[in-house]
């Protein structure tokens, strides 16, 4: 199986202009991910785990290194050097991202949010309606909330909606940034069921979890990062 993602010498730093100071987030990050694999990344808070995912998704622009992604549309493309238009396409159609936080357009209901995600993939409105109902029921989001604005939801409800919106698209590459951090055990199991389903369908995943037991059952490889420097494999 060939690599779907290869990271070479990735580095990211941030400049605090008011202090005239540069802070290193990550450096010397190298990682290869085969198609269909689930890679887990562990490390202490502040070690740079989320920064890696944000560089792949390109919400952060790396200061150094290459992120080679094997795209269905563009072929082999360096995400660190891709145009904004290319990244918009990839985020819509190939690369999904789940974080602990939900950012949505104002005055968009939960139902509309999930349906839009499915329609973006080129599916029909009829299919989107059916799949939206299935995944919102799976995550036990009360049907009375479906036509409400997510800004009124509790933290757990927002997180379940966030996961549902990303997973329903069945992306080629799915980035999971501690998505189960504030979920109860029952909700975590529902996330696990969908992850296992996506794995069977061939989705490649890179995940960050604080709940290591939850992650170990799923991952093909686990890497640890310390103080932003290099990834060390901790199992095989």
From TrEMBL:
Entry-linked SMART domains: AAA (SM00382)
Membrane topology: Peripheral membrane protein
Compartments, record wording: Cell membrane
Pfam families: ABC_tran
GO terms assigned for molecular function: ATP binding; ATP hydrolysis activity
Keyword check for Mitochondrion: no
Keywords: ATP-binding, Cell membrane, Membrane, Nucleotide-binding, Transport
PROSITE patterns membership: ABC_TRANSPORTER_2 (PS50893)
InterPro entries from the UniProt entry: AAA+_ATPase, ABC_transporter-like_ATP-bd, MetN_ABC_transporter-like, P-loop_NTPase
Coiled coil: none
Domain ABC transporter: 5-236
Domain of life per record: Bacteria
One CC-aspect GO term: plasma membrane
Record-stated family: Belongs to the ABC transporter superfamily.
Protein name: Phosphonates transport ATP-binding protein PhnL
